[in-house]
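Appendix B, record 7
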Amino acid sequence: MWIYLLRHGIAEDGGDGLRDADRALTDEGWKKLRKSATAWRRIVEPPQIVFVSPLRRARETAAVLVEGLGGKPDLRTEDALLPSSPAAAAMSLLEAEQHSGTTSVAVVGHEPHLGYLLGLLLTGHPRLPIPLKKGMLVAVETESAASLIAAMRFALTQRAASALG
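Structure tokens (predicted):
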């Protein structure tokens, strides 16, 4: 199974009464993600399912991903992708999809959660995070249908995506 991990784009700063869950992408965040989507379209098959954190900036980032890649993925908002959730909760979502025969999934969320999830997918160890920059897209592919241990296929920063776009 192909698993794409995407960290949300540049978002508003917190504070001044703005709840973390309500922080939106900035104009620059939207612009950089849309520019990255041009490169994503060239190298990524649209996923069957997109799991997304319920926080606004992640939902907005997922909208850019879905629009950029096309297709009609099943978009699922999941509390297991909140920044405070354990990576094992997200692994359970992925495991269920792998067992059901899903061939590609995207996960849109936050740091440090995505870094821990990526580390877990690549090493099997829950405490070895591999951080993602804002707007970074990482692709891994599971080695077999019996395991979620995966191999890295690519990691694409927004800067690199812009150069490819």
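Remarks on this record: Residues 2-164 form a domain with the Rossmann fold fold (CATH 3.40.50.1240). The beta strands are 2-7, 49-52, 74-77, 104-109, 137-144, 147-156.
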